[in-house]
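Task card 7
Instruction: Convert sequence to structure tokens.
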Amino acid sequence: RPEAADPKSRAPPDRPSIAPRMATGTPPTQNFWLWGTWGKRKISAPFLTQKVEGNIRDVVIGQSFIIALQEDGALVSWGEDKSGCLGLGTDFTICQEPRKIVFPEAGVKVVDIQYGKRHLVALTSDGKVYTWGDNTGGQLGLGDMQTRFEPAVVEGGLANSTVVQVLAVDSMSYALTNQGVVYAWGDNKDGSLGLEHDTAKVLRPEPVMRMQETQVKKLLVKECGGSGGKGKTIIACVGGGGPPA
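Output:
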């Protein structure tokens, strides 16, 4: 009679494997438990992920992929994504085991990573912003609408700025500088970026001019509902910093 599989290490159907990586003589690292809604599926029994060696600070859960931010500032990804979200290049749109995401410059240390609808925004320890993934709305901020399969540095209005916070909301991107200035780019349907012009797709970071007279301390995204349906509201906190995230 075959031995029953350990429920902690079974991966949900049609999702990236979260079973442990087996290294000779080295026990797998226990990374994080996973359950809830994942894409179109409901996961009611928590799964223990044991894929990444070392401690993890944060994770991104995509439709069919995972990106882990490690304590040393490195990023690793695994799973499947055809829009470039793995960040591993065009040769690795499917990757069963965690693989390190390589940045254009050496020594990059990521301190935060944000996931929009199908794109990633990463903030580094020296205040630079990198993006990759889908770019049909200009949400990568690179001056065009071409998909990127590897991280690319965002310059434009951010070239001479030190960024302290980033947000990715649907197909929009935001950055907050150490001077309290908010930049926005990406899908601007119905003026949703807050830039007060009707350009449908903003391809490079632009400052939100309405807030230039105040110093923004922190950006928040809040889910909102009501009779009109669900939506997302951006909050720029000033003064004492506003409500907790």
